[in-house]
Amino acid sequence: MNESKNESNTEEILNLLFSYMPKIAEERKMDGLLILMADLGRSLVGADRCSLWLIDENKGEMWTKVAHGVDELRIPMNLGFVGHTVKTGESLCIKDAYKDSRFDSRSDQKTTYHTQSVLTVPLKNSEGAIIGVFQAINKKNPPYYFSPKDVEYLSLTAVYSGKTLESALLTKELEDTQAEILNILGEVSEHRSKETADHVTRVAASCYKMACYLGLSEYEANQIRLAAPLHDLGKVAIPDAILQKTGKFTPDEYEVMKTHTVMGHHLLKSSSRKLLQLAAEMAIGHHEHWDGSGYPKGLSGENIPLSSRICAVVDVFDALSSARCYKEAWSEEMVKDFFIKQKDHQFQKELIDILLLHWDDFISEYK
Ligand code: C2E
Ligand code: SIN
Ligand code: SIN
Ligand code: FE
Ligand code: FE
Predict the structure, then answer these.
(1) Among 68, 205, 326, 341, which is least packed by CB within 10 angstroms?
(2) Number of the ligand closest to the Cα of 327
(3) Which domains, ranges and CATH numbers included, belong to the chain?
(4) Which residue ranges have their beta carbon within 6 Å of ligand 1?
């Protein structure tokens, strides 16, 4: 091998590493990390495509995230080169995938992509356990297959990536657990069946959409999404006879029901966690009206926290669009008319403008 070519290679590689390391060090999100590391791997070995596959033990699958892709990609854990590497811990360097019996050509068939050369190396955590696979596909330059040097570079990157991903995986696990617990609590507070579990999930998703359309940061929108399932937590304190009454409330029953706002606030307010503080704010404020005619305090305008104003719109949108034990679902037209009429009365004008502008996106959860 030519000496000087080797040197410039080393320099290029160092440059690549130095340009990626700070970005990787700053990235906190799993999806972002997977994409950055795949980019680094791809540049490092001159591949057309590169991805990091992580193990999902529960489902017996491997998953990854691609740039601009909305959803995760998933494959069965035991199939193909990735499956082989995850099972054996061996790296593979394949010249022509179609000549190898381990190749699973179904993804090629689905996308009309042609896989030829392949490189896979295992991703290990700090204890040496395999947590995933780094895969590069189709070397871009002659001889169009990967060299032992490429195996070495990708393996080095895999060691670094494995350790970084390990801590991100722990964080993701904690965040997923947190979101799940909040959702379960929200469902419990609704006391009820499957339908209501969906209510909680839909309200959370729609609050997030509304917050994003309003221009709140990804972080703020996500906090609102996480806190939203708890807005009716206070319903745990409402007797079933009232909560599940099939007919219209008497005025007295309605007064009892209204206390779910202060009850929820009471349950959550003693926590010093920011997220639960936000949930407390949404619990007490989500039945306030923009014009001051709501409860429990009769607050108006911007005296109502923004999170509560968002939750108020989304909660009523959900209540009207679906059937409740005391009412039928309204038609889409009736729901729309209601919100147009309540602009500046029950709800802040700007929020209704967003709801109407992105109507199809919001209503899609109900179709
Ligand atoms: P929910 O069923 O989720 O309804 C949330 C909010 O959507 C209601 O808050 C109200 O602002 C709006 N909404 C729901 N249905 C209608 C409707 O038919 N017309 C209009 N204009 N708005 C509607 P609200 O009224 O403070 O009620 C809070 C919660 O109290 C309701 O949550 C529901 O769980 C319960 N509730 C309210 N009224 C009745 C009732 O007559 N019977 C029963 N069984 N429960 C009721
Ligand atoms: C619900 O969300 O099912 C009840 C509505 C409310 O009290 O906000
Ligand atoms: C439901 O399950 O969503 C209807 C019960 C109610 O909101 O009162
Ligand atoms: Fe409520
Ligand atoms: Fe609600």
Answers:
(1) 68
(2) 1
(3) 2-170 (3.30.450.40), 193-366 (1.10.3210.10)
(4) 245, 248-249, 257, 287, 315-316, 319-320, 324-327
